[in-house]
Recover the amino acids of this structure.
């Protein structure tokens, strides 16, 4: 009907204008009545589709196997905690003078500048991420982390870091047998720490911290910042870098604390999801 009316109106208009019109409606075109959409029916169909998709999603998610945390390349996201540029700005690359170099640390040295040894920060970043991953896994399972440091100017930073992440610190003189003879020293069965974190592996320039050897005897893993004058062989997870400057120690403490806190929060989230 609409097409015929349009053609008739055009014919009358052209006739008034003095022209002839030969417009005729096409015979094969049929004007069909417009059907009003059934919104109730379409909405019900849409709801059924959504309901089916949700059901399929639930079934598929339930069929997924659980994530193997130990095989995950970076379950706790430790690679995002720092950058090489941040390490450089904090002076992690600065070592001791060339005359104090331990030959076992030669593999981590990038070069010298004015006879001061320079660490290769790409290597340091790789070792630091491995250490943070281990700390995260231990903290995720409720392990005890013990921070150890004998450097007086950095003791307060280390102690505050342990308090912030709910762990422990030892920044005083280390009594011999604390780990190897803990039952007699403490007068009963004592739970030893699950990992020791050394912000400095030396008691002095030439003397190594005695807790490193004790931890190796009782098979407790260790994470340690090893400077150019240190021996990394007894450290389970050595991190080559500056162990003297307060800026570098603050950087280490920050990333250690963040990794431990993130792992503990991740454990709470995973337990909440399971329940």
């Amino acid at each position: 009907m609409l097409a015929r009316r349009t053609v008739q109106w055009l014919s009358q208009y052209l006739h008034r204008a003095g022209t002839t019109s030969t417009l005729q409606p096409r015979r094969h075109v049929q004007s069909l009545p417009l059907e009003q959409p059934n919104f109730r029916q379409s909405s019900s169909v849409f709801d059924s589709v959504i309901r089916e998709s949700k059901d399929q999603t639930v079934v598929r998610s339930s069929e997924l196997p659980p994530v193997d945390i130990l095989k995950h390349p970076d379950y706790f996201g430790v690679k995002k905690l720092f950058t090489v540029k941040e390490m450089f700005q904090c002076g992690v690359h600065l070592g001791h003078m060339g005359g104090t170099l331990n030959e076992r640390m030669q593999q981590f040295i990038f070069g010298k500048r004015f006879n001061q040894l320079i660490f290769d920060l790409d290597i340091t970043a790789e070792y630091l991420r491995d250490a943070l991953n281990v700390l995260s896994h231990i903290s995720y399972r409720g392990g005890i982390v013990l921070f150890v440091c004998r450097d007086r100017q950095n003791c307060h930073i280390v102690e505050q870091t342990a308090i912030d992440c709910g762990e422990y610190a030892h920044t005083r003189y280390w009594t011999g047998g604390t780990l190897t003879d803990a039952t007699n020293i403490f007068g009963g069965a004592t739970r030893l720490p699950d990992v020791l974190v050394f912000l400095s592996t030396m008691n002095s320039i030439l003397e190594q911290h005695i807790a490193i050897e004790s931890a190796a005897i009782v098979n407790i893993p260790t994470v340690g910042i090893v400077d150019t004058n240190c021996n990394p062989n007894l450290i389970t997870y050595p991190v080559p870098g500056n162990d003297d400057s307060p800026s570098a120690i603050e950087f280490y403490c920050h990333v250690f604390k963040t990794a431990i806190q993130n792992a503990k929060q991740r454990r709470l989230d995973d337990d909440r999801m399971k329940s």
Remarks:
- The longest strand covers residues 109-113.
- DSSP finds eight helices and eight strands in the chain.
- Helices lie at 2-16, 39-63, 84-89, 121-140, 155-164, 182-186, 210-217, 246-274.
- The beta strands are 94-97, 109-113, 116-119, 145-148, 168-170, 195-198, 222-226, 237-240.
